[in-house]
Prior knowledge:
The complex is a heterodimer. By secondary structure, chain A is of the alpha+beta class. Chain A has three domains: 3-140, no CATH class; 191-275, Methane Monooxygenase Hydroxylase, Chain G, domain 1, CATH 1.20.58; 283-418, 2-Layer Sandwich (Heat Shock Protein 90). Chain A has eight helices and eleven strands. In chain A, strands 6-8-9-11-10 form a five-stranded mixed beta sheet. A four-stranded antiparallel beta sheet of chain A has the order 1-4-3-2. Chain A has a two-stranded antiparallel sheet with strand order 5-7. By secondary structure, chain B is α/β, with parallel strands linked by helices. In chain B, the strands form four sheets. In chain B, strands 2-1-3-6-7 form a five-stranded parallel beta sheet, with helices on both faces.
Amino acid sequence: MKLLEKASRIYLLASLLIYAAVGIAFYWIINFMIYDEVESRLMVEKQDFEAYVRTNDTWSNNSYFVENKIEVVPVFGKFDNKVVFTDTLIRNRYEENVDPFRQLTFYTLIGGTPYRVAIRKSMIESYKLIEAISAAMIAFLGLLLVSTFLFHRVLSGKLWKPFYDSLARIKDFDWTKNKPLETVRSEITEFNELGDVMEKMASKMQHDYRSLREFTENASHEIQTPLALINARVEQFIQAKDLGENHTYWIEEIYHAARRMSRLNQGLLLLAKIENQQFTEQEELDLSEVAFNKLKDFEDILQHKEIRVTVRSTGSFRKTMSPALADILLTNLINNAIRHNYTGGELRLESAAGYVQVSNTGNPLKSDPERLFERFKKESTGAESLGLGLAIVKQICESCELGISYGYEEPIHTITIRG
Amino acid sequence: MKILVVEDEKGLAESITDYLSREGFVCEVANTFWQADEKISLYQYDCTIVDLTLPDGNGFDIIQTLKKIAAATGIIIISARNTLEDKLKGLEIGSDDYITKPFHLSELNARVKSLIRRRNFGGNNDMTWKDIRVNLPARKVFIKDIETTLSKKEYDLLLYFLSNIDVALTKESIAEHLWGDNMDSADSLDMVYSHIKNLRRKIVEKGGKDYIQSIYGIGYKFTAP
């Protein structure tokens, strides 16, 4: 949910609750005041009534009181001498409906006999007043609610604009490029502070990225040089005439280990470089053409392993990507298809618009196919395999937005690259 | 033949000079950019081996200076940087060859020799050793003056041996020389074995001696029996 929307919703909800509470309280106050007024008037009439009875000592149900009805009923037996206010409904004399009245009931002696006297006063006018006041209040409160809500919305939108503009720029920011991040300046201190912090972080990221790139390059150099030295010394050492069988075995092991380490180093550096998007050169290539050309480099080994090669192309697979990466991608794919093939097996290279597919015969996978593209995931225990080939393929596909999938239908393994 | 080795790693520079001296080259070493700069302005070399990353400068600058003052000198770059861009840049500014670290000394030796041959004779010469004569421009091989037909890989293998006479060569260095860097598998070592077998057979068939000596566990040596 967007900040503005969330704030609006909370505001709306809180306003509704507060306004409702205010409305109810207001209603009660008015109601109370009107009752108070009516009751005090009834009390005055009671005094009038009592004064009349005191002087005349009699009461006739005449029309002394025009507006109000006074009901005088004689009481027999016990009664509770109390003054009580009650609400009551009385049928209208002329119209077919009932009207609300406030009634004061008390007991008095007229000519020595106890009577229950009920004085009533119509509430109909008061109720109309309450209704009118309530309606006006609801209308005004509603208007207030809507207008402050709209005002709040517009104001927030204006106030937060620099924030959203900066956010858009941060989203567009690319730390692999040299262009610094520039946030939007505004009158609001907090936004400016946020902008400063973001700019600082962005320049730190760019700086770190650059140093990582440099580190990648330097690490390559620093590690390869001592390895080159080991290699060179071993080569000098094997020129000695009097090497025992043990010596040659040890030397061979050292030599192998050094070469393996060098390859591992190169593989990991390559992965890091792809991850860091250091292959920036772009060119439109026909990947099927690259694949078929690559296959020629492997002629010798294909012949040696007596692998039958089937090539089928029904169109060109155009893709804009780094030529160096395309070369590494297809070399690794074909190399993989040869390495895990068996003598006398088969290799199929198929391509059309949108895909290149390399299939090879081979033993079924021992491990989970899901993990095939992971680093150091080795199928064979052969020391020659580093377990980086397919990880590099996957990484290239990810960075060039190519899809990759693996399938197995005994005894053919298939890896498909899709554009 | 005088060779200048510009390499900051002293051990590696020593290995290179030792190896090349055995092959009859006169080697000098420069461990820093300024030493190299001084030496190339004072002396003449047939070939210069340059490491690109030096503590006090860039190998590319040395190559540019060399190209200005001594255009006849052959230049081989040895570098840990193995990207295509670096290789192309190296060749663009006038180096003749580019080898990535770690490399085989035998490979470097073969490249130096091939470079000097191209420089001095324009490639128009024969390479002769014992009964074997190789006509380089025509890529023809004669054993006791009888022409032998070799496959492309067998020819490359023979040249590699002829550049490294009496030197123990590892199987790996031979495989890498023939198929490059990306063919790293047990299969390529088998292929080396079968190519060696064929080459040996072809030389012996034409009346040559068996010059290829196997060294257990390591590789092969081309030597007079």
